[in-house]
Amino acid sequence: MTTPSPSRSGADRCPGLLTPFVSADGAMVRLRIPGGRVDASTLYAISSLAGRFGDPEVTLTSRGSLQLRGLPDPLPRELITAIDDLRLVPSGPHDKARNIVADPHAGLDPLVTALDEGLLGDPGLAELPGRFLLAVTSPGGPVLAEPWDVAIVASPRSDVTSRHPRGPSGPAARTSATVHVVADGRAVTVPRDEAAETALDVARSFLAARPDTRTWNLRDLPEAARADLLPGSLPFDVVAGDPPAPGPVGADLVALVPLGLLTPAMVEGLQGSAADGIAPQPEGSGQRLAVTPWRSIVVPGAAARAEELATAGFVTAPDSPWTVLTACAGAPACARTTTPTRDLARAAAPLIDPAGSPVHVIGCERACGHPARPHTIALNPRTAADVVAAQLEKA
Ligand code: SF4
Question: Which of 87, 317, 326, 384 is least crowded, fewest Cβ atoms below 10 Å from its Cβ?
Answer without folding.
Answer: 87
